[in-house]
Structures are given as structure tokens and as C-alpha cells.
Design brief:
- The protein is 57% helix and 1% strand.
- The chain is mainly α and 707 residues long.
- A two-stranded parallel ribbon has the order 1-2.
- α3 crosses α4 and α13 packs across α14.
- The longest helix has 24 residues.
- It is extended, with a radius of gyration of 39 Å.
- The termini are far apart.
- The N terminus is likely disordered.
Length: 707
């Protein structure tokens, strides 16, 4: 009994213990709470007379009341408003620790739903005017966390709309710190997928025109940096399985028997084609949900940014970021901004700082709807300023790569004369220039072979003849899936009589074809013939092997293939196996040479790296130099010393058989004076061209005198 009474006497000075007891049984300690609340009111009155001082008792009392507020909601109904009034009235003159105590107490009350989020956020943004960096970081962190918790179980659209309107007001306010904090909050909420709607993106787009450089740069970085990781996190295991499935179906269709070097090269080519096709599918899904796609009026935004770029007096890095955003808007939304291309053209010089980035911006701003007359001067500038023998091979290679990336998005801006001049570098002595020129040739073999010289066009494939070349402004809409005609032929025995060898990497060994093209007329294997051969003309009842089905597809004309594919697509749902067969037949068309007569020998097409016309151009595609970079002397010495570790000392292991034997003539010459070996050194030295001329002249004169 005495012990309990002693503890009660200590309660007025032991607030943590009283707090613990109140949370367990609030009704039993109501009197103690009332006594402490009266002390708080008296202390607050004293504090308001001099708000710049730090009062430890008030600090502890405020935190105590915030902890037990849910136990006495009626008595503490005015407590949150008291703290809000103190902060609004004395926010800039308050002591740093006292201000932080009031803010933390309000956060606790907000977590107990005793304060609305709108009122709290309005107060917190007002507190951003205080010169306290630690406080600003705490406020920003809480605002993000609070909005995230509000939308954790479901989107609260009404509250989100009110908060977004308030954020927009703060973003357009004159106070730079509040505007920048509001921008940072919205960007973080977008990255956390809390506010990733179109309204948030368009509010952020208004920050690109802020008069404060830091706010403008942060907004532009959001738009140009949001696409880095989007779409990259995919299931690599499933993609590799799909690739193996398509590769297996393709190799089954294009079969071989003997394993020779020539046939092995064709096999490698089939594998390369399949991998490229699968890579295209992966890259096409990237950037489909980036912030740039959610902008309501991208044309107006691009025009306003361009006008600001013309009058901009900021650092060159800021100008580059603005150019990057404009180019992405043009490329993603296929805008038309003709004045942008002459602006980029002014920066396309080898001595220009960050010129490779400017090349990327020029390529990103190109798309199929831009008139060739606007892009042709850019291509000419790249060719005249970079692809010339006056500069190093790296500069020439980057110029060719930039032209390739631009023409991959709009091949109509290239003329046949210029293209044929550029393709002459395919035999250049430098490997980087050679590979860049070959990749340009490979691109136009697919886009428009007619612009190339006849010797560079290569043998036409079935896929190229079927696809045909589109003219500028032409947009062909198809109502079928190319390659679906293979599904009209019933197949059997996917793995019958065909398989992977037991060697490493699952090497394919059962393949047969001619030296220059795949032979689809091989009928040597009886197990590959159709099961039902009752009729010569294939019908719906005939069952083919995969190879025979592909052979039948190749016999069809382009119109017949399109008609069959349209019938299949409109009459059934396609499964994953069906899409694997379609991918396999498209890869086979890309490998199979187009020839009415199989007796004609076609030259093999060189496989070059073709540029894919994606929305975003990577800097690596411009700086792609097929050469090892030169290391510094320190780096080379580190490599040399690393290779010497654990190695025996360089030199002959035999050494002198008899250590007491006399020295050799070579060892004796090392000890002689220079005058004794001078005549030998003179004979071994290389003579100059002038000395050789004099010697030859004297020899001829001597011979003439003798005769």
C-alpha cells in the first residue's frame, strides 16, 4: 500500500510512467491527467509571452498530451488547434527544438485521425518559409508518407483532387522553397505509383516554365529521366523460354542432315535472326507508360519549350536538357516542329561540347511523318561535318551511326547519291568506320533497297518481297497477322525424327540445305513426308510435318498468304503455341532467299546491326565504336603487373651449364669500350634514304668508270 502511494506521488514528475498507465486504464487516472493539462495551459501562456526561448517542461508536456490524446478526445478537442495557432503565429521566431516538438505532436495527432490532412498540409507548406533544413526534410517526408498511407487500401479520389489542387497552388506560388518542395513531393508520389495519373503529370508539366531555374531543371529531369527503368524489369526466364521455343520451331522447319562449316554458318544465321526478332518484341514494350504519354497537349508544350529555348540564357547543360525533352515529345507523339531541326543543326560540329547528345536529340526528333525536306539538311550536315577524312575514325564512325539512327526513323530523308557515297566506307581500313557503314547498308536493305547500288542490295528474302517498301505518308493497315498462314496447315510430330544432340549447348545437328540457300525440297527422309498422301493437292485433311508445312507456305504468293492469314485470325483465338509457329515462319522467311527457280545461286546477305526505330535513342548507339579504347599508361602497367603475378621470372630456364666456364663473346662485348665496337654498331644501324641514294650513285659511277 505504501509502495503504491509512493508511485502516485511520483506521477506528476514522471510523465512517461503516467503515459503508460493512462494508455492501460484512462478512467482511473483522469484526475492526474486533468492536473497535467492545467500545467500545460499555464506553461503555454508563459511561453507565448516569449516564444523565442526553449522550455523543457512545455516540450515534454506537448509530447505527453499528443501520446494520450486518443484516451481523452473530448478534453483534448482544442489541443490540435492550439498547436496550429502557435505555429502559424510564431513559425519563424520559434526556437528550433520547440518548433520541431509542435510539428511532431501534430504528426502524432494526424496519425490518430484527430486532424484533417488538408489542414495539416497547408500548415506544413506554410512552415517551409522557415530557415530550417532539417524541418523541411521532415515535413516533405511526412507529406509523402501521409498521402501514400491515405491511398494504401484504395484511391481516395475526392481527397486526392483537393490535395492536387493545393499542390498546384503551391507550385505556382512565389515562394521558391515551397514550390520546389511541392514539386519534389509530386515527383516522389509519381515514382511510388501513388499519383501516377494524367492530372499529376500535367501539373508537373507547368513547372517546366518556372522562372526559378532549379524548379525548371527538376521538372525537365523528371520527364527525360522517367524512361530509364520503365519496361526493363521483365521476366527473363519466361523470355528465354519463348526464345528457345521459337528457335526450336524454326530449326525444325529449316532442317539439315550433314554438319559442315557452310551449313553451320546458316544455322548460326537462323539463330541470329530469331534472337533479333525476339529482341524487337522486348524493346517495343518499353516506355509505353512513361509520363510523356500522359500529356494532354504535347504540341503546345513542345512549342512553348522551343520558344523558351530560343531565348534561354541558362547554362549549356540546361539547354541540352530542354532540347532532349523537346525531341522526345516530337518523337513520342509524332509532332511537327519544323523550326527545331535548324536549331539542332547549328550544334552539329565535331568540336561542339556534348555533340553526341545533340546527335541523339536529332535522331529522336525524327519520325515517319516529318517531311523529308526538313530532315535532309540535318543528314547532309552530319555527312559533311563528320563523315570526312579530315577527322579521326571515331568521329567518322559516330557520324555514320547518327545518320543510321535518324534514317531508321525516317528513311525518306536519304538520297541515293549520298547513300552510295556513304556506303563506300564499308571497305575502310578502320573497323569502326567499316562496321558503321555496313550497318547503314543493312538498314537500307530492309527499309528501301532501291536507294543502294545494285551490288549492295543483297539477295531479296521472302519477307522483304512480302513486306514491300512504303512511300512517304503511306500507312498500310493490315487486317491479319503476317505469318498466320502457317496455321492453315495441320502439322504433326513436332519433335519426330528431329532433336538436339547430346553435346553441350544443345547444338542442332539434324539440318539439311544447299550451299547458298535453305533447301525446302528435300524429300530424302521418309519420316518427314505427310501422313496422308492420298491426294497431290494439299487440303484441310492433309497432315504435314513442320518442314513440309513451311515448304507449302513458301509456294504461296504474297496475296495468297495474306488471304489465308486473314481467314485464320478472323475465325479463331490464337494460343502461345500458335504465336511461336508464326514467329518461326517469319524468321524462316527472313532467311529464305526469294527465287522463282531454286537453281539460281544468290550471294549471301551480310548480317549487320540494324537500328530499331524506338521512341528513345540510346547514347551507346551513337558512340558504338568497334574498337578497344586506348588505356592510359597507368592502366596498361596495372594490367602488365597483374599478369606477372604468380609467374616465373622471364628468361631462359637453362642458364649457364658450368658456372666456372669462361664468358661468351656477347658478354665480353658488354665490357669493352665504345671505340672498340664502334665499327660494328655503325654497320648495324639503318641508313637513311639519302645515304642509300649516295651509295647507289657512287656504285654506278664506279661501275661506269671500270667499263
Amino acid at each position: 500500500m505504501e509502495k503504491t502511494q509512493a508511485n502516485n506521488n511520483k506521477l506528476p514528475s514522471n510523465l512517461p510512467q503516467l503515459q503508460n498507465l493512462i494508455k492501460r486504464d484512462a478512467a482511473s487516472y483522469a484526475e492526474e491527467f486533468d492536473r497535467q493539462y492545467s500545467v500545460y495551459k499555464a506553461t503555454r501562456v508563459i511561453f507565448e509571452q516569449n516564444p523565442t526561448v526553449y522550455i523543457e517542461d512545455l516540450y515534454q508536456m506537448v509530447m505527453f498530451l499528443a501520446q494520450v490524446a486518443q484516451c481523452y478526445p473530448d478534453k483534448l478537442s482544442d489541443f490540435p488547434q492550439d498547436l496550429v495557432t502557435l505555429l502559424k503565429r510564431h513559425n519563424t521566431v520559434l526556437h528550433q527544438e520547440m518548433r520541431m516538438a509542435f510539428v511532431k505532436a501534430l504528426v502524432l495527432l494526424r496519425n490518430k485521425n484527430m486532424l484533417s490532412p488538408i489542414d495539416l498540409h497547408m500548415l506544413f507548406f506554410q512552415l517551409l518559409h522557415c530557415q530550417d533544413k532539417r524541418l523541411r526534410q521532415f515535413l516533405k517526408r511526412h507529406i509523402v508518407t501521409d498521402i501514400k498511407n491515405i491511398n494504401s487500401k484504395g484511391k481516395n479520389m475526392k481527397l486526392n483532387k483537393e490535395l492536387q489542387n493545393f499542390m498546384y497552388e503551391m507550385l505556382t506560388s512565389k515562394h521558391a522553397v515551397a514550390a520546389k518542395t511541392s514539386l519534389g513531393v509530386m515527383i516522389e508520389l509519381y515514382n511510388k505509383h501513388v499519383w501516377n495519373d494524367a492530372k499529376t503529370v500535367n501539373i508537373l508539366a507547368t513547372a517546366c516554365f518556372s522562372k526559378v531555374t532549379k524548379i525548371m531543371v527538376a521538372a525537365i529531369k523528371f520527364f527525360i529521366g522517367q524512361d530509364k527503368e520503365e519496361g526493363e524489369e521483365t521476366d527473363s526466364d519466361s523470355e528465354s523460354e519463348d526464345e528457345k521455343k521459337v528457335l526450336k520451331s524454326t530449326l525444325i522447319s529449316v532442317r539439315v542432315n550433314k554438319k559442315t562449316k557452310k551449313k553451320q554458318r546458316i544455322l548460326e544465321r537462323v539463330k541470329t535472326v530469331v534472337k533479333k526478332n525476339q529482341k524487337k518484341k522486348k524493346t517495343k514494350t518499353n516506355f509505353d507508360f512513361s509520363a510523356l504519354h500522359l500529356i494532354h497537349d504535347p504540341q503546345d508544350l513542345a512549342e512553348k519549350l522551343y520558344k523558351r529555348l530560343e531565348k534561354m540564357n541558362e547554362r549549356f547543360e540546361v539547354k541540352l536538357m530542354t532540347m532532349n525533352m523537346i525531341s522526345r515529345l516530337i518523337g513520342v507523339h509524332q509532332l511537327y516542329l519544323p523550326n527545331y531541326y535548324p536549331l539542332v543543326q547549328r550544334f552539329l560540329f565535331p568540336h561542339q561540347r556534348e555533340v553526341t547528345k545533340v546527335m541523339v536529340f536529332a535522331a529522336q526528333a525524327a519520325h515517319s511523318q516529318v517531311p523529308p525536306d526538313d530532315l535532309e539538311p540535318v543528314v547532309r550536315t552530319l555527312a559533311n561535318n563528320f563523315v570526312t577524312e579530315r577527322y579521326s575514325s571515331e568521329v567518322m564512325a559516330m557520324g555514320l551511326n547518327a545518320i543510321r539512327e535518324l534514317c531508321a526513323r525516317n528513311p525518306y530523308c536519304m538520297s541515293d547519291d549520298l547513300l552510295q557515297d556513304l556506303t563506300q566506307y564499308k571497305t575502310h581500313k578502320d573497323k569502326g568506320v567499316m562496321m558503321a557503314a555496313r550497318s547503314l547498308v543493312s538498314l537500307f536493305r530492309d527499309k528501301n533497297p532501291e536507294l543502294l547500288a545494285r551490288k549492295d542490295r543483297g539477295a531479296p528474302s521472302e519477307l522483304r518481297v512480302e513486306k514491300k517498301v512504303e512511300q512517304f505518308g503511306e500507312n498500310k493497315a493490315i487486317s491479319y497477322i503476317p505469318g498466320a498462314e502457317i496455321l492453315t496447315f495441320k502439322t504433326h510430330g513436332d519433335d519426330e525424327g528431329i532433336g538436339l544432340s547430346d553435346s553441350e549447348d544443345g547444338e542442332w545437328v539434324d539440318v539439311k540445305h544447299s550451299d547458298d540457300e535453305i533447301d525446302l525440297d528435300d524429300d530424302d527422309d521418309d519420316d518427314d513426308k505427310a501422313v496422308n498422301e492420298s491426294t497431290d493437292t494439299p487440303n484441310e485433311e492433309t497432315i504435314f510435318s513442320k518442314k513440309d508445312a513451311l515448304k507449302e507456305v513458301m509456294k504461296l504468293t504474297a496475296e495468297e498468304r495474306a488471304a489465308r492469314a486473314a481467314d485464320v485470325v478472323s475465325s479463331r483465338f490464337l494460343t502461345d503455341d500458335d504465336f511461336a509457329k508464326i514467329a518461326a515462319v517469319q524468321a524462316a522467311k527472313q532467311v529464305e532467299k526469294f527465287s522463282k527457280s531454286k537453281k539460281n545461286k544468290k550471294r549471301k546477305r551480310e548480317d549487320g546491326d540494324q537500328a530499331e526505330s524506338g521512341e528513345i535513342v540510346s547514347l551507346k548507339s551513337i558512340e558504338m565504336i568497334y574498337k578497344k579504347r586506348k588505356h592510359s599508361k597507368e592502366a596498361r602497367m596495372e594490367t602488365v603487373m597483374a599478369g606477372r603475378e604468380g609467374r616465373e621470372k622471364y628468361g631462359t630456364k637453362k642458364g649457364r651449364m658450368n658456372p666456372n666456364a669462361s664468358t661468351t663473346n656477347k658478354e665480353k662485348n658488354k665490357g669493352k669500350s665504345f671505340m672498340m665496337v664502334k665499327y660494328k654498331v655503325g654497320r648495324k644501324q639503318k641508313k637513311s634514304f639519302r645515304d642509300k641514294q649516295i651509295k647507289l650513285r657512287n656504285s654506278l659511277l664506279k661501275q661506269r668508270k671500270n667499263y
